[in-house]
Write the structure tokens for this entry.
Amino acid sequence: MTDVTMTINGQTRSASVPPETTLLQLLRENFNLTSAKLGCDVGDCGACTVIVDGHAVNSCLMLAGQADGRQVLTIEGLASREHLHPIQKAFENSGALQCGFCGPGVLLSAKALLDDNLDPSTQEIRDALSGNLCRCTGYTKMIEAVQEAARLLREESRTQLTHARPEVATP
Amino acid sequence: MNEHSRVLERDKLDIAEPLSDVELRLPAVLPRESYPIETLTPDARQQTRAVGQRVTRPDGRLHGLGQTKYIDDLSFPGMLYARIKRAGIASARIKRIDTSAAEAMPGVMAVLTGKEIPVNSFGPSFQDQPVLVDDLVFHAGDGVAAVAAVTEQIANEALEKIVVEYEPLPAVLDPVAAMREDSPKVHAPNSNIYATKTIRKGDVEKGFAESDYIFEDRFSTQMIEHVSLEPHAAIADWDANGRLTIWATIGRITLARADIARTLKLPMSRIRIIGTIVGGNFGGKNEISQEPALALLSKKTGRPVKGVFTRGEEFTSTTTRHPIIMDYKTGVTNKGRILARQIRLVLDGGAYCSWSETTLGKACILAPGPYKIDNVLSEAFVVYTNKTMTGAMRGFGAPQVCFAYESQMDDIAKKLGIDPLEIRLLNAFDEGSPSPTGQVLHSVVIKESLRKAADRFDWEPRS
């Protein structure tokens, strides 16, 4: 068994799991965070995307032990009880998610992009989402939604809101 | 109710006198009220206010929050995990299945084979598909046994312990060869051609005789898997009262209920199907797959059983789009007017019928294309082969034939030196044109659409 301790959505969580456990299994089965999905189990589809130390990763390809001591963000940690994250708001308003299975992964890939670059070009958005497959939307509205989210985030950083949106949900 | 509160109630409702018993009584039959019946039916091509409006999905927020519960996100106390052993051979007779080693494994709660299924056949039009094969293997993705275990890992290991001995049989892989009389039969003694359709209009021979040019081409398309991001998944719970509840990613739950009732020999009233949010369907989740096997595993163990296909199983063991071999013979005048078109479609139906009949009909009717052709002969055949079954997928055969007739239109235009847009405008349906089956068509805007599209992307005539 491998002992792992990591910060998930702002909270420290520990578990003791068999060494072959993937980060995806750890999140879904041990921590009951089911937003990251099992689509292909080989790192092709991106439905299991989560953010580890600021980078979007396929959690089905990362062992739980490799995430030991790191910061993990899943979609459950993106919104607070009071506020949707601007990316979530933009995806909802654009109708960018249809069946929604790829959604959590796509949103987190977009978040990893927008954390680095608040004014991405269409090509940069395409590149950032290239690891996330979607069979419903044709990606057009997703790209529009990421552009809209970037606009909302730029506005937010310009106005320097005093009551800033909390980064991480409080349970 | 005390005196005080009654006074308060009265004040609030402003009732001067209490109503009498007669006044309070509702009539047995309510007096008939008539409402003005006004149905807003927009005229054809009328722009309604809905057009051009942006709509959002009511479940869009839950998707974005990661709160949508797909099957794999659900779990129940005591739940077991099922896996299915796949044949891995296209055509064979099962000589022996030995499940004893798998059954002896700690953590394995039940093993199921095809012989234990009460009625081992289902399908939306022909009931030719077994839940798990019991005697003959019809394609490599067929299930031969199912295992329920306390973890998915144990279930996977148990599959490796199941020993199946096969006697390999000749496999039919080419749909055209499968049509020959001397070909091995996939479902012997029945013919491999399991459905046909013919559409005849005018006289194609006469049309070809009058034509200046005749084009003969063969087009073919490949098998396509829907690849919905969510794999096929279900949870079955056969409770102690003999009632079965199934959570399933199925688009057509009523049809699924009938199929499950048939395979399990259980009255439909004892089956409850809960259609959860489907993580992508595209026609691939229009019928049952593993559900009866999960139900029987649940019956054997008395515990809920979850089954989720792997991505590999999605490709080998669920329905796909029909590959079609399409022979087109088209007679045209030297001005580009189509006088006759003869079409022969051979649909590769795979091992089972599934929605092939529907696909066959639609492909056959749409095969001549949206063009005014006086002489049409369209024949379509769907054929069994020892391959993954083909079924419903977006368009039901229409995309395949569209690829063929539009490719040939381009070839004709090039040969005759006519602009590809012009040749389509010359032949396309008008308002009131009859379709190949004689249906008079309304709201026909193909020419306007083509012109508008050409205008939008600055089409330059080429010939």
Remarks:
- The mean pLDDT of chain B is 92.
- Chain B touches chain A through 33 residues (CB under 8 Å).
- The first strand of chain B starts at residue 80 and ends at 86.
- The two ends of chain B are 91 Å apart (CA to CA).
